[in-house]
């Protein structure tokens, strides 16, 4: 598979290399019990690996410690991040764009990852943010009624707001409510540049897919362009955009980056994460369609304890004797993977890995610590979410200037 940016007019978003894995915006699976090969994704998608030099530079420019997702390699790839850091160093600004496809009542922890990281970026760089709720996409892909998708968008918005975004720098919108005007004009500009053959090559659409799916990609593309938001960025058509997202969303933005210079716009930059694995193992990402694969922000401490103890795949050995002798296989242990995302203390995390890998710590002890970390995190989110009112959702989604946009 060739990369789209300046190399080929057609690129497949779906990686099916020797049937090892399938990665596209709608499916992420590794075949035959295998793992997602992120080195192969970087090669196939044509993005670049995030290096330690990037992380040190972010710390230097923002005068704050790197987020745990940077320190632990959760965000591992990028496109044009150096250009964003260069312009910021020159005193110029950029804006952030991320989003959510609302298909379930509550978010699971994997859904929170991009928003937790985006909040860090917003706070660190003091830049504006647009958050797209693609309720139209879920209506077409999940075959849900329009009104239900709009309701789910508002419910998901409450969870996103609970992550702590600065309302003076944040505009959130649902496609059903906002699409029109300058936003729609940009959709048409993009649509005219992408042939049917190209969109099939990029996204793998089939003759059985309805035309709504085929026409959707420009909707997710154009928030990358500041002119789509004249109430925010009037006269700032050259403002750069940085998109934090999981790497399965990369096909949308390879298409966008190919089209952007042809319609007079800047290419968006991306910083991309690995997938948050299912409890059962790293053959795919956590799925809202399988409640036992996921920890939800609505789960009780009892639910979390039960799910971790029953379903979290263990790298421990079959007996205590063997475990003490050989130690745990940290590469496949889900409790270690989850602690890598959410245990902030680097020293404690390294200690757990050392002791568990050497067999001095047992699986039950590691799972106990994970249950504590997840229970505390979900409880904090629950309290924050309970304070989000319908009026607050309306305020975040109101079409208005942002008073503290670059302050």
Explain this structure to me?
By secondary structure, this protein is an alpha/beta fold. Helices cover 47% and strands 13% of the residues. The protein has 20 helices and 11 strands. It has helices at residues 38-45, 52-62, 68-71, 81-89, 109-125, 135-141, 146-161, 175-178, 181-191, 196-203, 211-215, 217-221, 230-233, 250-259, 301-311, 320-326, 334-342, 346-357, 363-386, 390-397; strands at 21-24, 27-30, 48-49, 75-79, 94-100, 129-133, 170-174, 240-246, 269-273, 277-278, 281-285. The strands form 3 sheets. Strands 3-4-9-8-5-6-7 form a 7-stranded mixed sheet. The chain has a two-stranded antiparallel sheet with strand order 1-2. Strands 10-11 form a two-stranded antiparallel sheet. The radius of gyration is 21 Å and the shape is globular. It starts with 20 loop residues before the first strand and ends in a 10-residue tail after the last helix.
What percentage of the residues does DSSP assign to strands (E)? 5-15%
Q: Largest sheet, described in full?
A: 7 strands, mixed
Pairing-aware structural class of the strands and helices?
alpha/beta
In round numbers, the mean pLDDT is 92
Read across the widest sheet, the strand sequence of neighbours is: 3-4-9-8-5-6-7
Helix content: 40-55%
Number of strands: 11
Low-confidence parts, pLDDT < 50 over ≥5 residues?
Answer: 1-13
Distance between the ends: 43 Å
Rg result: 21 Å
How many helical elements?
20
What would the principal axes of the Cα set say about the shape?
globular
């Amino acid at each position: 598979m060739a990369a789209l940016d300046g190399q080929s007019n057609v690129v497949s978003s779906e990686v099916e290399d020797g049937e090892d894995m399938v990665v596209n915006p709608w499916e992420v699976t590794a075949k035959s019990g295998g793992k997602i090969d992120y080195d192969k994704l970087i090669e196939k998608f044509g993005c670049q690996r995030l290096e330690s030099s990037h992380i040190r530079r972010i710390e230097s420019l923002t005068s704050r410690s790197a987020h745990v997702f940077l320190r632990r390699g959760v965000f591992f790839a990028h496109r044009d991040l150096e250009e964003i850091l260069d312009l910021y160093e020159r005193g110029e600004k950029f804006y952030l764009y991320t989003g959510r496809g609302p298909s379930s009542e509550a978010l699971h922890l994997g859904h929170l990852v991009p928003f937790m990281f985006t909040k860090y970026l917003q706070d660190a760089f003091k830049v504006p943010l647009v958050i797209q709720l693609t309720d139209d996409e879920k209506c077409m892909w999940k075959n849900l009624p329009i009104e239900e998708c709009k309701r789910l968008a508002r419910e998901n918005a409450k969870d996103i707001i609970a992550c702590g975004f600065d309302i003076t720098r944040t505009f959130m919108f649902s496609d059903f409510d906002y699409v029109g005007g300058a936003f729609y004009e940009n959709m048409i500009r993009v649509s005219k540049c992408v042939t049917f053959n190209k969109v099939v090559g990029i996204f793998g659409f089939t003759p059985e897919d309805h035309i709504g799916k085929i026409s959707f990609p420009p909707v997710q593309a154009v928030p990358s362009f500041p002119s789509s938001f004249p109430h925010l960025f009037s006269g700032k058509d050259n403002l750069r955009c940085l998109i934090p997202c999981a790497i399965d969303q990369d096909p949308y933005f390879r298409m966008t980056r190919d089209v952007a210079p042809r319609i007079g716009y800047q290419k968006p930059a991306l910083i991309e994460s690995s997938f948050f694995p299912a409890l059962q193992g790293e053959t795919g990402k956590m799925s809202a369609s399988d409640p036992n694969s996921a920890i939800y922000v609505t789960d009780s401490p009892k639910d979390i304890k039960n799910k971790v103890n029953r379903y979290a795949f263990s790298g421990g050995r079959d007996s205590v004797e063997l475990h003490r002798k050989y130690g745990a296989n940290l590469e496949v242990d889900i409790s270690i993977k989850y602690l890598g995302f959410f245990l902030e203390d680097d020293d404690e995390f390294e200690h757990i890995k050392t002791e568990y890998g050497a067999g001095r710590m047992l699986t039950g002890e590691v799972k106990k610590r994970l249950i504590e970390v997840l229970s505390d995190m979900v409880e904090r989110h629950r309290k924050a979410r309970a304070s989000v009112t319908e009026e607050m959702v309306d305020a975040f989604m109101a079409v208005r200037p942002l008073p503290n946009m670059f302050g």
